[in-house]
Amino acid sequence: MRIRATVAAVSGALALSAFVAPAAHAAGSTPDVTFSNMKINKGSSMVVGTTKASFSVTYTVTHAASLPASDFATGPVIYRGSSVTAPSDLFASDEPGTCTAASSTVLNCKATLAFTVGGDADLVNSEAGSWSVGGVAADADSNVKWVGGLGTTKVLRATKLTANATPEPVKKGKTITVTGTLTRANWDTHKYGAYGSQSVKLQFRKKSSTTYTTLKTIKASSTGALKTTTTASVDGYFRYSFAGTSTSPAVSATGDYVDVQ
């Protein structure tokens, strides 16, 4: 959920979806809690295609002994900007974290960050890349505490890659042509589109092996098309492999088997 400056204050039910934006809440006595061990998607990047995607978050909350766990709610946030209280962009979990007590003052919590593509307040292409990680806590009196600087994470535009090697079968020593296409999710159009002018490796794995070896590196055309040739030697699998960028993840095509006769 993206939080905007116009959203209403925290409800008595402590639903995170009703949290105010950092700049919008009045000053008051904030919940006496700290966050640690915030881990989003088990430490991996969050890769989003053209539909809704949800990612697990785990974290630890330490609270004052005088503040019962039942009197406040918490959740994870990701943000961009100078600080979590003055963000240029911010997403929070739609629901409060579910917590279990590890001691009288420590909670182990789980939550979910969800993104959709195609709505008014959902992901757009300019939001792909690195984000800062934080947390938010609120009590029944609508007092809110925002905590930033809990690490970084990435939200990336999903990539797809194909490979097709022909002819099949082929005589040893003859030419094999390998074609393919590199595309990635476009969060503005809500479809997959060409990811052109990117470097992609042509790789080969012998039938008896589990390891791919790079044969050459080529560049995709402006339309994301890939095409190159190589010489048939032994039975095996050809594929293209893309190393990824700061806004899209690495991806490898499924290997295409060629029988060399």
Would you spell out the secondary-structure blueprint of this structure?
Layout: E1 33-40, E2 46-48, E3 53-63, E4 72-83, E5 86-92, E6 98-101, E7 106-115, E8 129-139, E9 144-147, E10 152-157, E11 159-161, E12 164-166, E13 175-186, E14 191-194, E15 199-206, E16 213-219, E17 225-231, E18 236-242, E19 251-252, E20 256-258
Parallel strand pairs: 2-10
Antiparallel strand pairs: 1-3, 3-7, 4-5, 4-8, 6-7, 8-9, 8-10, 11-13, 12-13, 13-14, 13-17, 15-16, 15-18, 18-19, 18-20
Could you walk me through the main structural features you see in this protein, from its secondary elements to its overall organization?
This protein is an all-beta fold and 261 residues long. It folds into two domains: 16-157, Immunoglobulin-like (Sandwich); 159-258, SOR catalytic domain (Immunoglobulin-like, Sandwich). The protein is 0% helix and 51% strand. Strands 2, 4, 5, 8, 9 and 10 form a six-stranded mixed sheet that branches. Strands 11, 12, 13, 14 and 17 form a five-stranded antiparallel sheet that branches. It starts with 32 loop residues before the first strand and ends with a strand.
Give a short synopsis of this structure.
With 261 residues, this protein is mainly beta.
The coarse overall form would be elongated
How large is the count of helical segments? 0
Q: Poorly predicted ranges (pLDDT <50, ≥5 residues)?
A: 4-21, 23-27
The main pleated sheet reads as: 6 strands, mixed
CATH fold description of the largest domain: Immunoglobulin-like
| Number of separate domains | 2
Topology as a string of helices (H) and strands (E): EEEEEEEEEEEEEEEEEEEE
Structural class: mainly beta
The fraction of residues in strands falls at: over 45%
Helix content: under 10%
Radius of gyration: 24 Å
Tell me which CATH architecture of the largest domain applies here: Sandwich
Number of strands: 20
The CATH class name of the largest domain reads Mainly Beta
Average pLDDT over all residues: 90
Alpha-carbon distance between the termini? 56 Å
